């Protein structure tokens, strides 16, 4: 029995997707075409990605294999204490939950950002 794979794109990975990053493209394809692969984007990271590269939010939101994770009250309370909402929302959402008991992996082109955080990281740098 194989385990489901849950991956969150941070804003750097979303921007990389818009620039044709092959690794992020493979993640998007797998989430759309293969059962057991789940890809997520938090709304706060989506906003930051769009600020860095206009049009990214619409592009990511239009992809059928990506689930957009809203900023609910408990996430907002956690994010409010952080200096960067995008990273804080992604970190919060990637933590273990009833839907993802083992948590999730964060796909990023900035692995150093997550070095001291309690998450698994997938470096998608070109």
Keywords:
single chain, 126 residues, alpha/beta, Rossmann fold, 5-stranded parallel beta sheet, 6 helices, 18% strand, globular
Describe the structure.
With about 130 residues, this protein is α/β, with parallel strands linked by helices. The chain has a single domain, classed as Rossmann fold (3-Layer(aba) Sandwich). The chain has 6 helices and 5 strands. It has helices at about 10-20, 20-35, 45-50, 55-60, 75-80, 85-95; strands at about 5-10, 35-40, 65-70, 105-110, 120-125. It has a 5-stranded parallel beta sheet with strand order 3-2-1-4-5. Helix 1 packs across helix 2, helix 3 packs across helix 4 (about 55-60) and helix 5 packs across helix 6. The longest helix has 12 residues, at about 20-35. The radius of gyration is 13 Å and the shape is globular. The termini are far apart. The model has no long low-confidence stretch (mean pLDDT about 95).
């Amino acid at each position: 029995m194989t385990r489901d794979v849950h991956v969150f794109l941070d804003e750097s990975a979303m921007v990389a997707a818009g620039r044709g990053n092959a690794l992020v493209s493979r993640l998007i394809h797998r989430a759309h075409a293969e059962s057991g692969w789940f890809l997520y984007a938090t709304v706060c990271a989506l906003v930051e990605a769009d600020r860095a590269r206009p049009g990214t939010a619409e592009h990511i939101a239009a992809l059928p294999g990506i689930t957009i994770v809203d900023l609910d009250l408990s996430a907002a309370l956690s994010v409010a204490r952080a200096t960067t909402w995008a990273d804080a929302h992604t970190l919060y959402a990637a933590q273990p939950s009833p839907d993802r008991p083992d948590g999730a992996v964060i796909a990023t082109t900035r692995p150093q950002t997550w070095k001291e955080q309690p998450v698994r990281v997938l470096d998608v740098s070109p």
